[in-house]
Known about the structure:
Oligomer: single chain
Shape: elongated
Number of helices: 8
Mean pLDDT: 87
Distance between the termini: 30 Å
Order of helices and strands: HHHHHHHH
Strand content: under 5%
Amino acid sequence: MADLAQVTYCGLYCGLCSQRNRIPPRARALQEAMHKDGWELWGPGIPGFEAFWSFLGGLASSEPRCSCREGRCGPPFCGIRKCAQEKGIEVCAFCDDYPCERILGLAKGYVTLLADGQRMRAIGIDAWIQEQEERCKTGFAYVDIRCEPYEVPDK
C-alpha cells in the first residue's frame, strides 16, 4: 500500500503546496541576502524589524508539519476529511460518489483536482504519487493556477 502521508483525502498532493515547496526556500534566500547585507546589525533600529526577522527565521527554518490525515492541515472542520473517514475511504477519488458536491466546490479553486482524481483512478495511487513527485521537481504549486476562491459546502 502507498504511503499516503502527502495525499489529502480530497486528492491534493501536499508536496505541491507552496507552504511546503516554495515559501521556505524563498524565505531562506531572503534571510541569507539580508544577513549578507548586514540587516542583523542595523535592522533592529527599524520599528517592527525584530518581529519581522523572527517571523522570517521561522519561515526559513520551517519543516513540513502539516498532515491532512492527522487533522493538522486544512480547516479543522473539513467536511471532506470527516466524510472520507466516516466512509473508510483513503482518497475521495475511490469513492462511489466521486465527485460529490464538496469535491466539485473545492475543484473551483484547485483546477487540477478532478483530472488528478481521474488519473489516480486510472493508474492507481502508487503510480499517481510518483507522478506528483515528478511534478514537484518542476517547481509547480497549486497556487500557480488557482483561478477563483472556492467554498466547500459544510454538508
